[in-house]
């Protein structure tokens, strides 16, 4: 007799057409030989009250998700780079962006060359990411459950495509350098880390993207928590209301649209200035901002770790996608050429990894920040001043000069035309600021260790579940055909 706390037996590769009900769990496989449910990694939550139970509790998950939103607002408001009018530069990402999007030649031959090379390197990046990194390495060699079959291939292809575009920009620049007849114009065609926009404009775009990603993640966590069944004692009435009819869908998209329009408008128009609102109550320096950026990166990974199916990610938990009535996307191209499928896990958490790229750039800005590199200087009380006119960025970026010299156009000192921020620059050494790297190293190593040692399939478990169609014998085919037409009364089974 099976006890109540005994876990059900798990089948890794169900046969085609089977329908399995897991006794004591109430969850069934989606058959066809393709979908698996890892019940052990999920339902131990209902049976064990260990540290994992509390770390992954809905209240704590919701708190972390919304606290990240607040921290991203804070670091954007305090970041002096967000107010710089100097040109934005991003290593690798900037090269890829200028190679594909901007700096197009006005000579037809070189424009065609850029189209050909960008298409070639982008295609090579996708193929390399799909078949080498994902299929051979992550799924085949490491046997990571999160990357089984085609899961996570889009994210891998995204990162490898960025790197291949960077390599393509270097090769493209070599071709341009061999064009002597256009030597005076080649400099404007070459790909570089400069993105053709100011830091202020880029940070507005990055802040809007980070806000959208963080808000979507927070709402996704909220939506999943209100659909879950592992913690039956929390928010019972709210969960009942949330899951009734289309209330969760209406509430989700209403909050997303209204809040996004409100926040993006504030970010884009500078209607509310943080320095005027803050009143110097909470000033930061480059070291505290570096620790804040490091903390945000850690929280991004914590959101992923808090998932109930981490690190295997091989069940959809019968939970719908945020704001939708489905649990995954499936798109079949014409003539059955291919099928595009995005599972709920990668749809939800893939957004976080993209947001982490923006957070990494924010972290890089704080660690290596020097005021002169961004058209800024340090004044009294270590406050940072931003030069607001591009034509004044080339020289004389000192507080003493700009305070003692008059601008003939305004008949006021140069410092009066500049923007004084509450953010400060004390002058900490790079070694001291790199202390903020320690929490990231610890969390990333722990994350990688968990994925590698607890998220791998064993040697006996197949990495891929292949749907095999067996051809039926001819006699069985005739029997089935006759059965479907006449029924069973007039069939002589002895002839089969």
From TrEMBL:
InterPro entries: TMEM117 (IPR029370). The chain crosses the membrane at residues 59-77, 107-133, 154-175, 195-221, 249-267, 287-305, 346-363, 430-454. GO terms for biological process: intrinsic apoptotic signaling pathway in response to endoplasmic reticulum stress. It comes from the Eukaryota. This is DgyrCDS1930. The lineage of its organism: Eukaryota, Metazoa, Spiralia, Lophotrochozoa, Annelida. The keyword Transcription does not apply. Keywords: Membrane, Transmembrane, Transmembrane helix.
């Amino acid at each position: 007799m099976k006890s109540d706390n005994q876990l059900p037996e798990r089948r890794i590769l169900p046969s085609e057409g089977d329908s399995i009900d897991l006794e004591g769990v109430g969850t069934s496989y989606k058959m066809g030989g393709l979908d698996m449910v890892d019940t052990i990694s999920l339902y131990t939550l209902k049976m064990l009250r260990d540290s994992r139970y509390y770390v992954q509790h809905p209240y704590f998950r919701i708190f972390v998700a919304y606290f990240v939103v607040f921290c991203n607002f804070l670091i954007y408001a305090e970041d002096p780079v967000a107010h710089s009018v100097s040109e934005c530069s991003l290593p690798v990402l900037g090269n890829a962006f200028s190679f594909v999007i901007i700096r197009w030649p006005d000579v037809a031959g070189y424009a065609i060359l850029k189209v050909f090379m960008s298409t070639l390197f982008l295609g090579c990046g996708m193929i390399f990411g799909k078949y080498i990194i994902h299929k051979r390495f992550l799924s085949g060699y490491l046997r990571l459950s999160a990357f089984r079959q085609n899961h996570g291939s889009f994210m891998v292809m995204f990162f490898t495509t960025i790197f291949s575009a960077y390599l393509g920009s270097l090769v493209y620049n070599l071709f341009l350098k061999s064009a002597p007849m256009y030597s005076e114009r080649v400099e404007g065609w070459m790909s570089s880390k400069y993105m053709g926009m100011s830091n202020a404009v880029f940070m507005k775009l990055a802040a809007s993207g980070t806000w959208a990603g963080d808000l979507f993640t927070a709402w996704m966590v909220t939506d999943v928590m209100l659909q879950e069944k592992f913690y039956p004692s929390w928010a019972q009435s709210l969960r009942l209301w949330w899951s009734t009819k289309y209330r969760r869908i209406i509430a989700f998209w209403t909050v997303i649209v209204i809040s996004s329009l409100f926040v993006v408008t504030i970010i884009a128009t500078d209607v509310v200035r943080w320095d005027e609102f803050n009143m110097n109550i909470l000033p930061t320096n480059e070291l505290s901002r570096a620790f804040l950026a490091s903390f945000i990166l850690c929280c991004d990974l914590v959101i992923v770790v808090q998932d109930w199916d981490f690190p295997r990610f091989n069940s959809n938990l019968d939970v719908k996608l945020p704001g939708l009535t489905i649990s995954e996307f499936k798109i079949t191209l014409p003539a059955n050429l291919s099928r595009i499928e995005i599972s709920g896990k990668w749809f939800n958490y893939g957004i976080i990894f993209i947001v982490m790229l923006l957070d990494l750039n924010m972290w890089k800005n704080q660690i290596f920040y020097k005021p002169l590199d961004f058209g800024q200087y340090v004044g009294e009380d270590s406050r940072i001043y931003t030069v607001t006119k591009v034509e004044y960025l080339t020289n004389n970026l000192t507080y003493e000069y700009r305070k003692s010299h008059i601008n003939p156009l305004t008949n006021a000192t140069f410092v009066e035309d500049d923007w004084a921020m509450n953010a400060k620059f004390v002058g900490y050494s790079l070694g001291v600021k790199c202390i903020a790297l320690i929490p990231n190293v610890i969390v990333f190593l722990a994350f990688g260790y968990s994925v590698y040692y607890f998220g791998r399939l064993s040697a006996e478990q197949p990495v891929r579940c292949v749907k095999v169609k067996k051809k039926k014998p001819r006699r069985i085919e005739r029997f089935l055909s006759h059965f479907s037409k006449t029924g069973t009364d007039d069939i002589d089974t002895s002839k089969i």
